[in-house]
Amino acid sequence: MIDWFSYVQIAVALLAGVFCLVSGFARRAPNDYTLGATALVELLLVVQFVVALVSPAAGNPPKGDVLTFWVYMVSALLLPAAAAFWALIDRSRWSTVVLGVACLAIAVMVFRMNEIWVSPNS
Questions:
Q1: What percent of the residues of the chain are helix, what percent strand, and what percent coil, each to the nearest 5?
Q2: Which of 12, 19, 77, 110 is buried most, with the most CB atoms less than 10 Å from its CB?
Q3: Which residue pairs, CB below 8 angstroms and at least 24 apart, start in 79-83?
Q4: Boundaries of domain holding 53
Q5: pLDDT tens digits for range 58-106
Q6: 9 and 50 in contact (C-beta within 8 Å)?
Q7: Residue 27 in 3-state DSSP?
Q8: What's the pLDDT tens digit per position in 1-44?
Q9: Which residues of 1-122 form beta strands (DSSP E)?
Q10: Residues 84 and 35 sit within 8 Å (Cβ to Cβ)
């Protein structure tokens, strides 16, 4: 993993999460903006996945538990997709809130993945 990219990804996920939560609590159904913000978070996760695959070959292996890292990565990849699927099926304001919670969860998961990658005692 690349530190600066992880921090950018965390910031984007936090901003998207807060935006979706505010939209949901303002009684707005999922729209192009909330789904687009969630899609951006997913896109950054896919890039992070590719970086995590290539990094060990480039001399940057994880220092923590590899299995734990990959469980976080796969779970993180599935979470925004599941939230977006929910939002497309249930067009209520609570779906927008679910998008926000998913994005905030991704921010925490990416922080933890970065911690596992750089710390040998994680």
A1: 80, 0, 20
A2: 110
A3: 79/105, 79/106, 79/109, 80/38, 80/39, 80/41, 80/42, 80/45, 80/106, 81/42, 83/38
A4: 3-118
A5: 988 889 899 999 999 999 999 999 999 999 999 998 999 999 999 999 9
A6: no
A7: coil
A8: 888 999 999 999 999 999 999 999 999 999 999 999 999 999 99
A9: none
A10: yes
- Identify the CATH number of the domain in which residue 22 sits: 1.20.120
**Does residue 28 sit in helix, strand or coil?**
coil
* Spatial separation of the C-alpha atoms in residues 82 and 121, rounded to whole Å: 31
For residue 48 the two structure tokens come to: 């992070």
At residue 59, the pLDDT reads: 87
For residue 76 the two structure tokens come to 């993180």
